[in-house]
Amino acid sequence: MWAVAFACVIAFMGIGLVDPILPAISAELDATPAQSMLLFTSYLLITGAMMFLTSAISSRIGAKPTLLIGLVLVVVFAALAGGSATVWQIIDFRAGWGLGNALFISTALATIVGATSGGSEKAIILYEAALGLGIATGPLLGGLLGEISWRGPFFGTAALMAVGLIAVAVLLPKQDRPTPEQHVRLTATFRALSRPGLLTLAVSALLYNFGFFTLLAYSPFPLEEDAAAAGMTNFGAMGLGLVFFGWGICLAITSVFVAPPLTRRFGRRPVLITALAGLAAILLGMALLVDSLAGLATGVIVAGLFLGVLNTVLTESVMEVSDLPRPVASSTYSGVRFMGGAVAPLVAGQVSDALGAGSPYLFGAAAVVLAIVALLVGARSLRVLNRAHGEPVEEEAWAITGGDA
After folding, report:
1. Is 177 a member of any domain?
2. What residues contact residue 85 under an 8 Å CB cut-off, 6+ apart?
3. Residue 187: which residues within 8 A CB-CB, separation 6 or more?
4. Do 101 and 93 form a contact (C-beta atoms < 8 A)?
5. The whole model's pTM is what?
6. pLDDT tens across 104-146, in order?
């Protein structure tokens, strides 16, 4: 249990790890900001695509082999990224990293629950703590190691994940191979999109994630420029790491402690629409304050509060809106939503060059507004979400897994 939880912390660090070093990669490898942001695109594209298949893979080869294959891939490709000579090599290796992360994260929660002897609630609390710690400390670790070299975060992740790999291999008991009756069809996740409620939420999440990863992938560049304009020559990777550390702390807190009571009191759909509206307003404000270091940094950090609520409540909703098995519903939803995240950095780089520094945030805000429209158009298929509802702890954990994996 502890071995898998440790590996979860490192895996979740990967979400924000590269943020503080994007400007350094761009400068030292003679790459444009648009090219550097493709580190997110390749990672999320492969992660999203693999999410459609992970439940079928793990149901055939078993949880432990799936975990170990995922961990090996992360170690290998993170180390290769650290040794890259061009930005295009890093982009390719980040895709392999995304493949490993998809295999590992999709299996980690069920493994922790099965490995603990203290009851599922204890295991879920541990998993939630690992998730929050990883998301919050990823940018901070990236900033600390990035001060030494942009290669540091990649090699650091590879080393830490290698420790997790050894621990899981040695400490996690061998499990019985799944029987044919336990196999999930390869087409199960694709067929799940025929459910109107799940399709509505997946489309909304795709659009929301466009705004999410516009903020996450693009913001390091205007923040670095604003710091330079203000004469803060020592801002660098550590300054960016601290800003996104604040973002991660806010996201982790609201994911675990704020989203559940809000949904219990108001119901999921009203919470989703309100949080999306708040995120759209923040992105609009960041477009207007793109030349202000304080304004932009504040926008990034405060956005984390809304992102944490949205990640959890969206995936909680996915679990309730259909009668599909939780792994299938979560994999389907995650596969679609990460496609929005993969496209966002690609669009942000082109739009900022053509229309100005604040324009990517306007596109992000527009996408989030369209996510609200999708929820309103599909309201009939989401009627089950209108009532206030409390989730058992295991349901909340599945929600957080799908939301932030």
Report:
1. no
2. 29
3. none
4. no
5. 0.85
6. 877 776 677 666 555 544 565 566 667 777 877 888 888 888 8
